[in-house]
Design a protein that fits this description.
Elements (H helix, E strand, L loop, with lengths): L1 H61 L7 E2 L8 E2 L3 H20 L5 H14 L1
Length: 124
């Protein structure tokens, strides 16, 4: 009779443990998504500031607005240097990779864990 009582006590404990693990994983995932949102917003603010600084510098270097377009060289009257696209592209690629790591990857399932354990046991 004592064994049956112990088994009954273990069943709720196991399900409570699973629920606690699922809760911790959910909290971790929510934290990852919040950090990504903060990174995107702070990066956008940083890029706006950088573009503003670039526009002021190019306005003074070229002596006015880009009436004759953009060029790779600086100091030509009414022509702006377009170097600003490189940090924007770089930051966009970094944020896209970070976004994929947060939203594109699925959590590891129990099936995958069991399959990997079986694979490792078979290779030893």
């Amino acid at each position: 009779m004592l064994l049956q009582d112990e088994k009954l006590r273990d069943v709720p404990a196991a399900s409570t443990e699973r629920e606690e693990l699922a809760r911790r994983q959910a909290i971790k995932e929510i934290g990852r998504r919040r950090r990504l949102r903060i990174e995107v917003v702070s990066s956008a603010i940083g890029m706006v500031i950088l573009v503003f600084i670039w526009a002021i510098a190019e306005y003074h270097n070229a002596g006015g607005w880009p009436a004759h377009g953009f060029s790779q060289s600086s100091g030509i009257h009414d022509v702006w240097n377009y170097w600003i696209v490189y940090p924007i592209i770089g930051l966009t690629l970094l944020l896209a990779g970070r976004g994929w790591s947060v939203y594109g990857q699925k959590p590891i399932s129990e099936r995958e864990i069991k399959r990997e354990l079986e694979r490792q046991a078979g290779t030893r």
